[in-house]
Each structure stands twice: as C-alpha cells, then as structure tokens.
User: Fold this.
Amino acid sequence: MNISITTETFHQDDQSWLGSAHATTATRTITLDTSAFTPATHYPGGYFPSGLPLGKITTTGKYGPYDNTAEDGRDTLTGFLFTAVKAPASTTTDVGAALFEHGRIVEARLPIAIDAAGKTDVAARITFI
Assistant:
C-alpha cells in the first residue's frame, strides 16, 4: 500500500465556444491520432482544448487537427472536440474523445480560427455566430 502524498493537476475546460446546448448530448466517440498534432500548437498545456477543429484521417479513421492544406482527409472539417482531453505522454499513444458535429458555435471563442473552406465543409450542420 502506498500512502504517500500525490499531486494531480486538473484542467479547467472552457466550453464558451458552444452557442447553445443543442446536440451536446449527441456527440460521437472518436479516436485522436496524437502523432498528427503539434504539441506547442494544439496542446501546449498538456490538454487538447475543447473546441479544437478536427478532420478525419482517411487511411486510419482517426482524427487529427483540421488543416485545409493537408492531403490526408484532415483538409475537410468534420467537427470540434467537445471536451478537453489530457494529452498522453507519448505521441504514439492515441486517446478517445467526443466529437461535436452539429449545433451552434461562437466562432470568436474557438481556440483556433476556422477558414472559409472549413465553414463550407460543415455549413449544413454547424451555424457560426
């Protein structure tokens, strides 16, 4: 039995990017391909932030950061990370997450800006306010 004192840090999730509660109970479970993300850009504090724009990698079915210039499927915006997820210690370890696919989004509150092409990709499912 280990009774030593341990310290654990928790992350405060910021979901101020959500424009309404619509569809917050209808997220889809996905897998984040940690190797597709850049630590300093996408999870500098050790967490993938809520509201991170995502694209589906065609060859694996996993998700990475939306990038309109990518050629692996991530060039199509599919949705946003619903809640913050702790990044693993290794970039070879993938993590489960929830994908927000339809509803209203406060664009100015997203952790990373969305370009016009990304907005077109989700125009039938997501309203930017």
In short: Residues 116-121 form the longest helix (6 residues). The helical segments are 39-42, 116-121. The beta strands are 28-32, 47-48, 53-56, 63-65, 77-81, 85-86, 95-100, 103-105, 126-128. The domain at 28-128 is CATH 2.40.300 (Virus Head Decoration Protein; Chain: A,).
